[in-house]
């Protein structure tokens, strides 16, 4: 549990791998995934490393697999499924077997594919000659004769060429085939045109038009004999083509059964060889030396993996490790599971915490869905989102869902627990807003009553006004959330805007203050007490003296001024402006006695905290550096770049002060997005769903079904998908 709030403790280990068992040891470590190897050969070219030939061998196998995968997708129209269970890295003999089988399969498949492509080309001229041979030469004059087929697009230009080349001494006849035949080059179905040409002495040039010409026997008997032989050859070729295609299907099915496992095995083998390239040989060249980062809690698992690798290799000497002192900061490791992975990715997308710092993802589990729900609050929409997330969680073990390669689906499925919490928090905030598909729920009795107001009401007014100062009109606040009667009020939008605007500022300041306070635990953990007084306290003073006081005024006004005195309540906005101007507005009475003195003190404290934040840390580091210098180190003092330290602190100070102002304004998007979502929901209900309630006949039931279908589609596409994505992105911005 401690590693969830703070990154896990990591140490640097030096691993001695016996040459005979190095492959299996690294393979076992890779299956566990508990170490991160360092490159001990940074100055060695990638092509000069010891195991580069093995890596190239795996890359060649991957190229072979790509060809097989393409052929499977083209002929079988199937996608490869990940093997279950995942196979381990292959042994050298197994890799040799994979290489031989894949090469033999590829070679056979290439030969079959070649014949499958060649047979149609061989068969096309024979099929084209059949309609030519069936025609009869009815000319009595002894003329030279040639026949063939030509593409129908080239018939007009071909006819003109023949007429000009033969000077008119030619007879040409064209007829379209009854059936379409495959083009030998492009493979498309073409309705060829049969040509007959009679000429006296000149043989026309037909090759430029890619025509196919055939010898035409003189007698009918010879033509029938030629045609019978032609049909027999066509049948033989078709029979061979069928057997060849069947054999190709068998090869592809066999490849489909083995290829997924081969791909995983070769990828693991390549990864192992790549890690071995990071190792350096020992002086005696009997073992490989590797350095890796490993969690301290996983050191027993590291030793067990080394022993298991040695056992599989049959090595008489076990590999072992030693802990080394680290000269650099270890990498940050936050162990995650299927629930916390989505929230950790949100934080890591902005930046990864330094080693042993607090993990913000723990608090993001609550704050992110909550801020999303403030903008997306609706009981109905949150319930739909929750049901979708529950379906993904209950079916998370389904291989079809886990192995789906669609990028958008993978993103949604990986964040299924995040979507679940967003839906649940949306139900909660929707209950506070009292909105369910933009309609209010009268779960409890309303605190407002019309009957006591009847004797005071002017019946000539268009609107009925409920005065809480009249006894019996307002009996008390609604038990939970907004009173549903506000949905009928003419000024409900004004009331909700005021409520959501102030709520957004309060949530924003609390969220930012909590983030600043988290640094206290980091300073205490790293024993950096000076930063508590020179960084943390000035930051809190600047934040709380300005925006914390703004929250105090909002809450104070809510508590002090009730329905009886609401008309004389002062303006908080004017008070906040006068606070910076050190002026007093006589038209805006103070909230409490001594307000001007308190505000002046708060502004002075906030202004003085800025130079402390700007100069305190650089001066403290400079003084500490001067004290560390001893007489022996005066001749060669360690470098201290005061300009760099001051510039870094100046950037931090400016960014923090401006960020307090801009981010407070940014949190108003909670109000804006919530208002937009509520208004879109109301427009969709009034313009679509309410139409179905106007028909009272039997036809109205049919119309209601149709309109409800349209309402459901628009609700899912606009309010759930588009508005949900918008609220998600804004919540992401507020956390970043």
Pick out the low-confidence regions. 137-142
Distance between the termini: 25 Å
Helix content: 55-70%
**On the 0-100 scale, what is the average pLDDT?**
81
Which SSEs are present, and which pair or pack?
Blueprint lengths: L1 H4 L4 E9 L3 H11 L3 E2 L14 H24 L16 H43 L9 E7 L4 H11 L4 E7 L4 E2 L6 E2 L2 E7 L12 E3 L5 H59 L1 E2 L5 E9 L3 H15 L6 E5 L16 H10 L10 H16 L2 H16 L4 H4 L4 H8 L1 H18 L58 H34 L3 H32 L11 H10 L13 H34 L13 H25 L2 H19 L10 H38 L1
Antiparallel strand pairs: 1-10, 1-11, 2-10, 3-7, 3-8, 4-7, 5-6, 9-10
Helix pairs in contact: 2-6, 2-7, 3-4, 3-6, 4-6, 8-9, 9-13, 9-19, 9-20, 10-13, 14-15, 14-18, 14-19, 15-17, 15-18, 17-18, 19-20
Folded structure, characterized:
InterPro entries: V-ATPase_116kDa_su (IPR002490), V-type_ATPase_116kDa_su_euka (IPR026028). It comes from Cyprinus carpio (Common carp). It is found in: Membrane. With 736 residues, this protein is an alpha+beta fold. Among the domains are: 1-20 and 30-40 and 279-335, Alpha-Beta Plaits (2-Layer Sandwich); 41-124 and 233-276, no CATH class; 138-215; 526-629 and 640-670, no CATH class. Helix content is 59%, strand content 7%. The chain contains 20 helices and 11 strands. It has helices at 2-5, 22-32, 52-75, 92-134, 155-165, 220-278, 299-313, 341-350, 361-376, 379-394, 399-402, 407-414, 416-433, 492-525, 529-560, 572-581, 595-628, 642-666, 669-687, 698-735; strands at 10-18, 36-37, 144-150, 170-176, 181-182, 189-190, 193-199, 212-214, 280-281, 287-295, 320-324. The strands form 3 sheets. Strands 1, 2, 9, 10 and 11 form a 5-stranded antiparallel beta sheet that branches. The chain has a 4-stranded antiparallel beta sheet with strand order 4-7-3-8, sandwiched between helices. Strand 5 (181-182) and strand 6 (189-190) form a beta hairpin. The radius of gyration is 41 Å and the shape is flat. The two termini are 25 Å apart. 23% of the residues are buried. Residues 137-142 have low confidence and may be disordered.
